[in-house]
Amino acid sequence: MILPIVAYGADVLRKKALDIEPEYPQLDKLIADMWETMYASNGVGLAAPQVNRNIRLFVMDSAQIFEHQEEDDKGQYPDEPGVKKVFINAHIADFGGDDWSYNEGCLSIPKIREDILRPEEVTIEYLDENFQPHTETFNGITARIIQHEYDHIEGKLFIDYLKPLKKKMLQGKLNDISKGKIKVDYKMVFPK
């Protein structure tokens, strides 16, 4: 089932999400619905707070970026052909490499894209969908998507990395999003 995506301005996007237990009600269905919602919205990652669940869960599929890449860009990133994973109760252990810029967007903040600096590597501790523990290091586009989605479960948004003047220049667009004055081709829920 495709779930509505919560728009910028909703309280759930600013809360630190909570760890969950294996008994979390209908977790398998929620994960399946999040995959369906992410793909239907042309996203590469989706965090539970974006579908109005205040829990430490996100899904990501960086392979989509590589599948739709121009021929000239192939081989540019070390994580090609990409990674598809579920992250539960994730906690970042470390960052590595240099910061690099990439043009990011967010399903909860539609029609706004900005260049954001993030470290090229991330080491993260998490549980998979079977609640098996993992500690892995990711790099390239995959590391970026993980950091973006991880921010969601920490109550942070990609626009928080912008300089104050740039953010102020976007305030009108952000206000329009929170008021529902925006058209997107996926289901959205706007703050009341």
UniProtKB/TrEMBL annotation:
Keywords: Hydrolase, Iron, Metal-binding, Protein biosynthesis. It catalyses: N-terminal N-formyl-L-methionyl-[peptide] + H2O = N-terminal L-methionyl-[peptide] + formate. The keyword Iron applies. Binds 1 Fe(2+) ion. It is an enzyme of class 3 (hydrolase). The keyword S-adenosyl-L-methionine does not apply. One of its GO terms (biological process) is translation. GO terms for molecular function: metal ion binding; peptide deformylase activity. Its EC number is 3.5.1.88. Belongs to the polypeptide deformylase family. HAMAP family: Pep_deformylase. Removes the formyl group from the N-terminal Met of newly synthesized proteins. Requires at least a dipeptide for an efficient rate of reaction. N-terminal L-methionine is a prerequisite for activity but the enzyme has broad specificity at other positions. This is Peptide deformylase. The gene is def.
